[in-house]
Amino acid sequence: FFSSRFECFAMKFNLLSKGGFSVVQVLLEQGETVKAESGSMVSMDTSIQLKSALQGGILQGLSRVFLQGEDAFLSCFTAETGSGEILFSSKDLGDLALITVDIGSSWLVPHGGFVCASSGVKISAKYQGSKGMFSQAGLFNLLAEGTGTLVVSSYGAIMPKDLKQGDEYIIDNGHLVAWPSTANYQIITASPQLMSSFMTGEGFACKFTGPGRIYIQSHQGGMYAPGRPASRPAGTAMGCVTAVILLFFVMSVYVLLGIALYVMTTPVEGDL
User: Which site in 39, 156, 240, 267 is 20 to 30 Å from 207, CA atoms measured?
Assistant: First the structure.
């Protein structure tokens, strides 16, 4: 279906296994950095140093927490003292896929599907509009753009579906893993009869029109399962606390700037 080895300049991504216990190995040369979702690291060499970073600044960090339910900070791993190896895994028992991100080929990933990416891939939030209201993927999805390798996870096996120009294909929206941001799709009922769609439990689905490649997961669960607790609730709670602190910091800066501006523009009584 897809290659288990991708290269981004000297940086190499290798899938060590496939299936429900998939792990990705990233080989870094000295000075190279890979970014990852908080808590996804399995192991690493001592030559690699970990730092946290706000992808896109404070506002993007806040949007990741409040709009996507992710952590505000991304983990950045840099090979400081030499080349090294680092392993990542997904939050759920499931597969991993390597996707090439390039100029003009950005990708959308639902909440919980991002694992890691090379430093040239920018991670942000994208509003899905009315489509998100009827999709289990949510109103806001993760947008990966730039150049490099993106690693996404699933619940169950990942299966890519290639559509030729004009091909139409219906996918249950709870089975979406990743799709091109330029993909042409619409939200429909799984059956032409509205009652049949909901009586059978299928509900809404996404109808994609080619060309393009869509990544699908074999099982509906993991981050999508109704009533299922988050895989790492503590991480989400910590992300919310961090977001509140950042919001307080931003508001404090604006207040201090306002006070400073007032003092600077108010004439002193002795100067009159």
Answer: 156
Best CA proximity match to 145, nearest among 60, 84, 30, 39: 60
Predicted confidence (pLDDT) per residue in 188-239, tens digit: 876 555 555 455 555 678 899 999 999 999 988 655 443 333 444 434 444 4
Rounded Cα distance between 187 and 133, Å, is 10
Q: State how far the Cα of 37 lies from the Cα of 50, in Å rounded to an integer.
A: 12
Q: What is each CA distance from 102 to 88, 99, 118, 150, 174, in whole angstroms?
A: 22, 10, 12, 10, 26
The tokens for 200 are 């059978």
Say if CB 65 and CB 243 are below 8 A apart. yes
Angle at 172 between CA 167 and CA 176, to 5 degrees: 85
Spatial distance between the Cα atoms of 15 and 22, rounded to a whole number of angstroms:
7
Residues paired with residue 185 on neighbouring β-strands, in sequence order:
208
Interatomic CA distance for residues 11 and 4, integer angstroms: 14
Q: 126 — alpha (psi -120 to 50), left (phi > 0) or beta?
A: beta
Q: How far apart are the first and last CA of the chain?
A: 79
β-pairing, 33-36 with 114-118? antiparallel
Q: Identify the bridge partners of residue 173 per DSSP, sorted by sequence position.
A: none
The token duo for 154 is 């699933």
Sheet of 114-118, strands arranged across: 48-53, 74-79, 33-36, 114-118, 148-153, 96-101
Tell me which DSSP letter residue 94 carries: B
pTM for the whole structure:
0.72
